[in-house]
Design a protein that fits this description.
With about 575 residues, the protein is of the alpha+beta class.
């Protein structure tokens, strides 16, 4: 890491030295090269490119490309226009700019008039590809990003296999914390297991562009996983902090034992990730900053009032039958996708079934079903996996809180009892030095019994309440972790139902055909808009009609033009 920072400093210094001299040659004041960001604006002025190109220099995935392009254009403005000179400027501008700046005879001739050029096919293709990469990256970073629902935590509101677009403008796009990164990759380079796709030489503080609104209660939100700041590379689907609680930190860091199922270590190296490179999660925001949340026997209360309950919200039920199981036809008709398994207690054998609210009554009417009872963790039963992971707070999945959700600018009293609720906020999310000495609390070296929050926080939960790792397990979601809002499902692929399908996973095209033609429930999810109540009607047919009309218009127009020739 030290080497990386040293190289960044060297590259920056050499570039500034080159600009210092080149600015004076072009008639600009040399001192302008010494002011960060402003020197790039002057640079763009010299090569006669719009000032907003500076935003492309902080857009992850295209900033390296843009730096090479503006180095090339600057070299051409000083009459360095051979193929060799352009190639060196593009690939090693930080060396070439100071070289031409102090070369005898260097003069400013202005940018090349590209309108007079006759570009070759190779150049046309290169420019088209570069433009496509830049445009797609800018759209992905600041406007919309494609996203796939990976888990069943929001089933049936958002289902595994839903392909959707996430709006970054709904809450305002975040300026990337790590703008130096590989295009179209989140945190790992393609074709590698855990090679970082980003560089941490240069980081930007949290800043969010203006959006259309703020996160509201019951919004479905995509966010960066708060516990994902530290990751065990071979157990990335699990919380590192929960692994440490389960096995001990020393075991997680030092265990070299090989997992026989993967032929790799159980945990592997421990790495850290910046906010914008943590895994993307999608949940429902049940409580916003300033709310007080309580869960009593599965029912959620916000500020002592019952919270919104979606018709498709799922809970786990204890189902007793006449001894028979459930047919594949029944499972498919009721759209039961979470695995069904049997258990035994003092009352006998029963099935554990995850059911959405709107299917419970239908399930009770099945001929072989004798009783359906909700499985509820009792009040006072301590679950060590539940936030804040202290026995003094005897909370569980179904009985939780009351918990205040911190709001920016609000000051609260803190002591050695309630500090466990806020220590991660104070230390990690807001970057303070927190120490507890006896019954005294020190923040940044000063003893205190109050704390004022710097950010807004949210409490996220999955609609599949007993099959969702959410804020009940890892606490608050800071505002700087919020990515965007799901707005449009353009495709939904039905995975093989584990309850009725024992064969190997089928191919993607076969799943697509089955989803479109054999399953009306999945087909109804194609081309739908997302709301807090679920999905809108499908606009797939409308899309097909529009495509046919446009294609027909283009065909007949081209055909008519050919006939005229």
């Amino acid at each position: 890491m030290a080497t990386s920072y040293l190289l960044l400093i060297i590259f920056s210094i050499t570039t500034i030295i080159g600009l210092y001299k080149l600015f004076s040659i072009s008639g600009e004041s040399s001192w302008k090269a010494l002011i960060p960001f402003y020197n790039f604006i002057i640079w763009l002025k010299i090569i006669k490119k719009p000032w907003w190109w500076i935003f492309l220099l902080i857009t992850p995935g295209v900033n390296f490309l843009m730096y090479g392009i503006i180095c090339l254009l600057l070299a051409k403005a000083y009459n360095k226009r051979t193929f060799q000179e352009r190639a060196i400027a593009f690939l090693a501008g930080y060396i070439y700019l100071p070289y031409i700046a102090f070369q005898k005879g260097t003069t400013y001739v202005g940018p090349e008039d590209e309108r007079k050029l006759q570009p070759s096919m190779a150049r046309e293709w290169t420019e088209a590809i570069v433009f496509a990469v830049i445009a797609a990256t800018v759209i992905r970073t600041f406007f919309f990003e494609a996203f796939t629902i990976p888990t069943s935590s929001l089933e049936k509101s958002m289902m595994v296999g839903d392909y959707l677009f996430v709006s970054k403008v709904s809450y305002g796009a975040k300026i990337p914390n790590t703008p130096l990164s590989f295009p179209f990759a989140h945190h790992t380079l393609p074709a590698t297991e855990h090679t970082k796709s980003y560089l941490e030489w240069f980081k930007l503080p949290y800043f969010r562009l203006p959006g259309f609104g703020k996160v509201k209660n019951n919004d479905i939100v995509v966010f960066n996983y708060p516990d994902g700041d530290t990751v065990a590379v071979y157990a990335q689907d699990q919380s590192y902090y929960q692994l440490c609680r389960d096995y001990g930190r020393a075991v997680v860091w030092n265990n070299k034992e090989i997992n026989p199922q993967t032929d790799k270590p159980y945990f592997g190296d421990i790495i850290s990730r910046p906010v914008d490179k943590r895994e993307n999660y999608v949940k429902r925001c049940v409580a916003i900053a300033g709310d007080t949340l309580t869960i009593k026997n599965q029912k959620v209360y916000i500020n002592s009032k019952p919270a919104y309950v979606a018709a498709t919200m799922q809970y786990t039920y204890k189902v007793k039958t006449d001894g028979t199981g459930f047919s594949p036809k029944t499972i498919d008709r009721l759209d039961i996708t979470d695995p069904i398994h049997s258990e035994t207690d003092t009352s006998g054998t029963f099935y554990v079934v995850n059911l959405p609210n709107n299917k419970v009554d239908l399930f009770k009417k099945l001929e072989n079903v004798k009783s359906v009872e909700p499985i509820i963790e009792r009040t006072g039963d301590y679950n060590p996996r539940i936030f804040p992971h202290k026995a003094t707070y005897k909370w569980n999945n179904d009985n939780f809180g009351p918990l205040y959700i911190p709001k920016k600018g609000t000051t609260i009293s803190i002591d050695t009892t309630n500090i466990v609720l806020y220590d991660r906020i104070i230390r990690i999310y807001e970057g303070n030095n927190l120490e507890i000495k006896g019954d005294k609390i020190f923040i940044n070296g000063k003893q205190t019994n109050t704390y004022t929050f710097k950010l807004d926080y949210y409490f996220m939960m999955g609609d599949n309440r007993h099959n969702s790792a959410d804020s009940r397990y890892w606490g608050y979601v800071p505002e700087d972790h919020v990515v965007g809002k799901p707005v449009f499902v353009w495709m939904s692929i039905k995975e093989d139902n584990k309850n009725i399908d024992a064969r190997a996973q089928t191919g993607f095209l076969k799943k697509l055909r089955r989803s479109l033609f054999d399953d009306p429930n999945r087909r109804a999810r194609f081309f739908t808009f997302v709301s807090e109540d679920g999905l809108s009607r499908s606009y797939l047919l409308h899309f097909i009609v529009i495509v046919i009309i446009i294609s027909s218009f283009v065909y007949f127009k081209n055909n008519k033009a050919e006939k005229k020739k």
